[in-house]
Give the backbone structure.
Amino acid sequence: MKLFLDTSVLLAASGSRTGASWAIFQMAAAQGWSLLASPWVIGEVTRNLPKFPAAVTSEWLRLRPQLVVMDDVVSLDRVLVFPVSKDRPVLLTALASANVLLTLDRADFMGALGSQCYGMPILLPFDFLWSERAVGRLPTR
């Protein structure tokens, strides 16, 4: 399964080893998940890292090699009304390359689009893990 990780998920995974965002990285290899990002997303992470303690940058540098970097997609062959221009490349690249978009940005993604876009689920990392458990792809404990 190809999971596109938004900036918010990457920063959360880098900032805490107790959340679902970090768990995604820990489970990816065993579950056969490909963790995707794009130059746009990585640039956003890089611009935001100075706002956090140095340990966040260290963890980002450790997690970064697990990402498959997809080329940014800036246009779509379908109609898409998405008012958040700064996140448009994230959504378009996820649509072009992933099965699921994982984000913590409820307002911009889920507020504008709901729980999916052209059939691609848009989920919080916790909700993704919960749904994987519910269908038996993850152990319950």
Q: What stands out?
A: Residues 20-31 form the longest helix (12 residues). DSSP finds seven helices and six strands in the chain. Helices lie at 7-15, 20-31, 39-48, 54-63, 88-97, 106-113, 125-134. The mean pLDDT is 87.
